[in-house]
Amino acid sequence: MAAAWEEAREHGLATLTLRQLAARIGMSAPSLYTHFAAKHAIYDAMFADAWREVERLQVAMVLPAEPRAALRTVARTFFDFSTADLPRHQLMDSRIIPDFTPTPEAYAPAVRVMTNLHKLFATIFGTARNEDVDLFSALVGGLIDAQWANDPGGQRYGRLLDRAIDMFADDMGLPPAPASGPAPQPDEPTPGSDQE
Question: Could you read off the pLDDT of 156-196 as tens digits, one per residue?
């Protein structure tokens, strides 16, 4: 798996070949066929590997008790994971490999991740409607795609993540997060305001 990811990072996911992978690990291409029947079998194993890593991160997350902060933590964890590795993101969340569909076994970790997200929504909102989870996923995924397309390695869209999650939370009817400090008094100018 490590060699397959290295090859994908260096030369692109779509150009991965069994011959390149075999050469990287010092094996003949026919010998590699004893482990992977075809190139799509490697993609399948890589897909499962990536989603198992998301699942591991999800299980290890320590979520704040405050609902908006919990949503932000979930979103940020996935955003950071997905913007750290383009081939992994492409395989998990884009369809750039023609005719590749993960097997049910490889897809199982992704299903568990989404099941856990549904459970979190049920805890926070009292319900876990598919359309709400889909909207949350599309919102975070859209910012990930925009980050890769416009500012790879930067924070142009990552810095908007909390704001987007707050808009989502507003739409879902979550009360605002408690203020972290005392609110400014009405007659005191707020730093950065026109009253200064």
Answer: 999 999 999 999 999 999 988 887 655 455 555 545 544 44
Q: Where are the alpha helices (DSSP H) in the chain?
A: 2-11, 18-25, 29-32, 39-60, 67-82, 86-93, 104-125, 130-150, 161-171
* Residue 161 near residue 75, CB atoms below 8 Å: yes
Task: Please tell me the distance from the alpha carbon of residue 80 to that of residue 39, in angstroms, as a whole number.
Answer: 28
Note whether residue 17 is domain-resident. no
Paired tokens of 154: 């930067």
Q: Which amino acid is at 65?
A: A
pTM for the structure as a whole: 0.85
Tokens in use for 7?
A: 């090859």
- Does residue 11 lie in a domain region? no
Residue whose entry in the numeric block shows the structure tokens 């999800």 = 58
Residues 154 and 156: their CA atoms lie apart, in Å, by 6
**Residue 83 lies inside a defined structural domain of this protein:** yes
User: How many CB atoms are located within 10 Å of the residue 157 CB?
Assistant: 20
Q: Contact, 169 vs 71, CB < 8 A?
A: yes
